[in-house]
Design a protein that fits this description.
Blueprint (H helix, E strand, L loop, with lengths): L2 H13 L7 H5 L1 E4 L6 H9 L9 H10 L5 E5 L2 E11 L2 E12 L8 H10 L9 E6 L4 H13 L3 E8 L12 E7 L3 H6 L1
Helix pairs in contact: 3-4, 5-6
Length: 193
């Protein structure tokens, strides 16, 4: 069994999101560091993934350029079907902030989002990362389940606190965003699962 197959089976067993019908598809995915050339496709994917907030194409180009080492793009054949943007928090290089995670509708429920996070954390650029942060609205049950699964996978605790208030920060136009913090990450545990 190849290393990719072993890792896929490990993730399937742990996260239990992948149906047997999607196993062949998942083995044909290409995970890679995004480049400027991916910016337009990333923008289109994010726009097709409500309730994600749309960004300008320029913002997505910068994500693929300035934050490429802490982001991941995923293609199935030549089609972009997944993207996660992240960055190391200024003054806290041990913390990876995950900004947006977009998964094409036909690939949802396959564990792709968790695989993207693990892929980023396995990079040399993220060796010193001990904590993951993101923000989630209270109503986004899928994201809460995803990040609780990531906390479990890394043997870590998950804490939460209000970061951006609906009224105070969004003038009532966007739901409140809760800061989620996972860590410290147990890298040895994740490799053993």
């Amino acid at each position: 069994m190849s290393i990719l197959s072993r890792n896929l089976v490990r993730h399937v067993i742990y996260f239990r999101h992948v149906s047997l019908n999607n196993m062949d598809t998942l083995q044909n995915l290409s995970f890679y560091i995004p480049s400027k050339e991916d910016g337009w496709a990333v923008s289109q994917l994010i726009n097709a993934c409500p309730p994600l907030d749309s960004n300008s194409v320029y913002c997505n180009l910068l994500q693929c350029y300035h934050f490429a080492n802490t982001s991941v793009a995923v293609k199935l054949e030549k089609e972009l079907i997944g993207f996660t943007s992240g960055y190391l928090v200024p003054d806290r290089p041990d913390t990876l902030f995950l900004w947006q995670m977009a998964v094409d509708e036909k690939m949802r429920g396959c564990g792709l989002a968790s695989r993207m996070i693990v892929h980023i954390l396995q990079r040399q650029h993220c060796e010193s990362v001990q904590f993951i942060e993101t923000t989630i609205t209270e109503a986004n049950k899928a994201s809460w389940a995803l990040f609780q699964g990531i906390a479990n996978y890394y043997g870590s605790s998950l804490s939460k606190q209000l970061l951006f208030d609906k009224e105070k920060h969004f003038s009532g136009h966007h739901d409140s965003e809760v800061l989620v913090r996972i860590g410290p990450l147990s890298r040895a545990l994740s490799k053993a699962v």
